[in-house]
Design goal:
heterodimer; A: 3-stranded parallel beta sheet; 45% helix; B: alpha/beta; 5-stranded mixed beta sheet; two-stranded antiparallel sheet; 4 helices; 7 strands; 26% helix; globular
């Protein structure tokens, strides 16, 4: 994401990257970033929690105005799970990566999805 | 303590040759916001592998992107990505592609306008060169043509 942000920013459009991977973002060094300490796949919040999602995205929009120094990463205060402060120890380890679906399985899922919208037309 | 993804990725992918992470010690490029965000036309992009209706899925090393209409609903969207656990984002795309939330922030005046369309690609592209030289310039062109004032990028 940061790679694209740097190219777009250099082309003259202000950018802001959401991130949940602080070390990667600090390495890539995009112009503006907002860090949310949630597991990957939840960079703008938990599912079916629109209030939380809105609050996070609103904070990000505010950061467009407040970040004045290139390379700033604003850290948001939200906590993933107050009863599980240890998720960082175990997440993204061992069997984290989902198995890649077989081509046949993926083809079938895609055909079903496309057929669904063909019928809807 | 935030997860250190660079060493953990090295561990998860240890059967492959080590990934060379991009490190940019130089100052990032900088374009100041031309007006308050409440008057800006803001474009949204996600790298979560979001697909709209019958759009073709992504494949390995795919540097293409999809255009997602701003009024797309949950039922219109699917996800194709191998690099993160997609179940929560499948159930509610706003976890990684906050389109509905951005529409609300447009309605309540937090942003001036949500650009139509939004953009999506599949972030599991190993070649940084491909992202920098193929995907990013194409996106930048699209945004310039659409007269976008501010660009919000959400990874997955």
């Amino acid at each position: 994401m940061g790679l694209i942000a740097r190219v777009v920013e250099a082309a003259g459009i202000p950018t802001l990257c959401m991130t949940s991977a602080l070390d990667i973002t600090r390495a890539v060094n995009p112009p503006r970033a907002v860090f949310l300490n949630f597991p990957l796949g939840h960079q703008t919040g938990k599912p079916h929690d629109p209030d939380l999602q809105r609050s996070i995205v609103r904070d990000a929009m505010r950061a467009f105005a407040t970040i004045a120094r290139p390379g700033t990463v604003v850290e948001l205060p939200y906590v993933w799970d107050p009863d599980d402060r240890g998720w960082e120890e175990t997440d993204y380890t061992g069997d984290f990566l989902p198995p890649r679906p077989e081509k046949e399985v993926a083809d079938r899922a895609e055909a079903e999805r496309r057929a669904r919208f063909d019928r809807a037309r | 303590m935030p997860v250190e993804y660079i060493p953990r990725t090295r561990e998860l992918y240890k059967s492959y040759s080590p990934y060379r992470w991009v490190v940019n010690p130089d100052a990032p490029p900088w374009t100041p916001l031309a007006k308050p965000i409440a008057r800006c036309k803001v474009a949204l992009m996600s790298s979560g592998g979001i697909l709209y209706r019958d759009q073709p899925r992504f494949h390995r090393e795919d540097a293409s992107y999809r255009l997602i209409p701003k009024d797309a609903t949950q039922a219109d969207l699917d996800i194709w990505h191998f690099g993160y656990r997609t179940a929560d984002a499948q159930a509610d795309h706003n976890c990684v592609f906050p389109l509905a939330r951005m529409r609300e922030l447009e309605a309540d005046g937090t942003i001036g306008e949500l650009a139509d369309p939004a953009y999506s690609f599949m972030g599991g592209i190993y070649s940084a060169r491909k992202v920098r030289e193929e995907l990013a310039p194409r996106i930048a062109d699209e945004l310039k043509k659409a007269r976008i004032d501010a660009f919000y990028l959400v990874p997955a």
